[in-house]
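look at this record:
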Amino acid sequence: MGEGELRVILGLLIGVAIVGSACGEGEFLTEPPGTSPLVGVWTASQVVDDEETIYRMTFEADGNLNVVGSLADGGQRSFPGTWSAEDEMLTLTGKFFASDGEVTVWFLLDDDSLTLGDKDGLETVWYRE
């Protein structure tokens, strides 16, 4: 292949990229596959016996997650796990969520709040940091 042919092919590739990015008036996806709006840090609090515990749940893009509870005495407990979402269902693994280590809940994402609910009607609202 000569230098002229290589320039033509390179020009076509650049042209396709420009046209493709202009299609859909800004709807061209540039996010990597697997990106979810759940990815990030979420907080919730729980009061037991007049002591508040603040929890931070971090959803990572690779499917890992970590929940850290900040205790009233200044200590922290960390609970590593994993997560996956399909439709409006979220599967969470790790000792924080259930004694057997896995729970599937429904979720509702609304701007900066994430509501998780189970089959028994219990709901928890988490807020994006």
